[in-house]
Amino acid sequence: MTKGETPVPHRWTSLTAISALVGLWIATPAVAQAPAWAPADLVAAAKAEGGAMTVYGSMNEQEALPYYKLFEDATGIKVTYVRASDTALFSKILIEHRARQRTWDLVVTTPVNRLPDEVLLQFEPNEAQNVIPQARGPNKRWYGVYANYNTPAYNTNLVKKEDLPKTYEDFLTRKEWVGRVAIDKGDTEWLSAIFEHYGEQRGRKLAQDLATILKPILTEGHLLLARSVGAGEYAVALSNYTNLTLNVKLAGAPTDYWALDPVALIFGSVGINSQAPHPKTALLATNFVLSKQAQQFLTQFGRLPTRLDVETNPPGVMQVLHQKKVLPAVFSADDQKKWNTVFLEIFRPR
Description:
12-stranded mixed beta sheet
């Protein structure tokens, strides 16, 4: 689940209780020796904390449960996974922090970098050296686990590849797409990249013209938008997370992405609770989520890695994206409020 998606009820899930479900997704071979991300001293320290931890995350359970089962199998440490939308998690974390409730250890979701410094522990896992520099939080409180590149998407049954716009200005000539274009109402990073790439005055005018001419429909939830384009409800998404377009494409839907300047980049990131009940276990788990093994696993769902030694699925996605101007967008909570206001001023239906 991604930024802006409709919150779902908090659900506590014991991974050990779903081994049958996990078996449907992945057969994990016996581990002859400890993986590189699990040094013996750190594993021992983690087990001394009780052999369990709690993860807050927005990743859907079909991916997350078998993902953390890999960690369980390698370490013997039990994981309780709590899933909700990133917005709901953000609020829950702040409330629990103020109440000094030591309820969670690890968080993996999109807006980790927007949490106040006092909520997150400063840490530097060994595996962090293997992710791209943009995916390393400057204050060592978060690290990118998967990359959300923002690109347009289209339904391949409704739009021919040769008819795709070559620039965002070209969208203004596609008046036949009025009512058939959509964008997530939280795509603030994409809008900030438009302003940065074109300059604020020209970028604002372009965004306003896109809103006026195409009248894009505002959706809530990037995965919902990807599925809606794949189902033909919309012909085109002005912008969406490339990995979610790929996720829907890999599931067999007639959809694909194409890259235009600029490509905004944000991360699904990992952070450790500054009041974590199991801090060593959380540190071990950050090594896992940043590891080659874990990121390779996530590519089967179309997620894009933050490591250069992991190939995308399908291959070559990074080469396509990095032919364009990629603009990382790491917002503070105040930045997010500002860009939310600007986005709705421009794209709110009138």
